[in-house]
Amino acid sequence: MRGKFITVEGGEGAGKSTNLEFIRRLLESEGYQVVFTREPGGTTLGEDIRELLLGHKHTGMADDTELLLIFSARAEHLARKIMPALEFGKWVLCDRFTDASYAYQGGGRRIDLERIRQLENWVQGGLKPDLTLLLDLPVDVGLTRAGARSEPDRFESEGMVFFDKVRNSYLKIAAAEPERVKVVNAAASLEEVQRRIEMVLKAFFRAQSESQ
Ligand code: Z5A
């Protein structure tokens, strides 16, 4: 049986890295084989593209270039890693996916959403995550958390207005697809965030076993 595809999304400092390991352990404790990966990246070629996107060598790259690089990395990721794993029955846990393109390139950079949809259809051919956890928190809280870390990358160097647009885009996606996208209040304590994540995942596991 085909595996399930779970993605985790959120703005700056939302706690994706902090919670991904927790999610992986929950999936493994249910007996699923998990492939853990990220975007942009996930393959050798994809990680090279990630360096181009996040590094400061190409500051000021055209918005369309950015979008096309992201979807190039995604095409490679799907062909080499995600699809083979799902077809083998493994569960794929991915740190960001196409919702991030709608939020950052669509919302943040104001690229026409229809263009993004065309690329999504071309590259993914109908594949969507089965479940997306959206870690949501006010932009200023996230930036304060993220600010405590190392040198900002090319995206992290954007300002409040950009991240507000990103957050609003993510929330619009969640409102449009409530079955797939589950919003978790990431401004809460880590214990509370993980309690909510666990509730969402347990409900998802139950739905899987009922549908078998
Ligand atoms: N991007 C794009 O534009 N388009 C696309 O299609 C895709 C991506 C796929 C790389 O993402 C960039 O790519 C991203 C968008 C763009 N740009 N940005 N920015 P990334 O996922 O690698 O980078 P990131 O968003 O900066 O994620 P991160 O660095 O891994 O941050 P995080 O995972 O959200 O946060 P964290 O490191 O887990 O937590 C931040 C701090 O908060 C840390 O000190 C934690 O200990 C603390 N924390 C976490 N949770 C809590 C709670 N609950 N309470 C208190 N403190 C907490």
Write a concise synopsis of the structure shown.
The chain is α/β, with parallel strands linked by helices and 212 residues long. The chain has one domain (5-211): Rossmann fold (3-Layer(aba) Sandwich). The protein is built from eight helices and five strands; from the N terminus they run βαβααβααβααβα.
Describe this structure in words.
- The protein is of the alpha/beta class.
- The chain has one domain (5-211): Rossmann fold, CATH 3.40.50.
- The protein is built from eight helices and five strands, in the order βαβααβααβααβα.
- A five-stranded parallel beta sheet has the order 2-3-1-4-5, with helices on both faces.
- The radius of gyration is 17 Å and the shape is globular.
- The chain starts with a strand and ends with a helix.
- The mean pLDDT is 96.
- The protein binds ligand Z5A.
Which SSEs are present, and which pair or pack?
Elements (H helix, E strand, L loop, with lengths): L4 E6 L5 H14 L4 E5 L5 H11 L8 H25 L3 E5 L2 H11 L4 H12 L6 E6 L2 H9 L12 H17 L4 E5 L4 H22 L1
Helix pairs in contact: 1-8, 2-3, 3-5, 4-7
List its traits.
Rossmann fold, 8 helices, 212 residues, 57% helix, 5 strands, binds ligand Z5A, five-stranded parallel β-sheet, alpha/beta
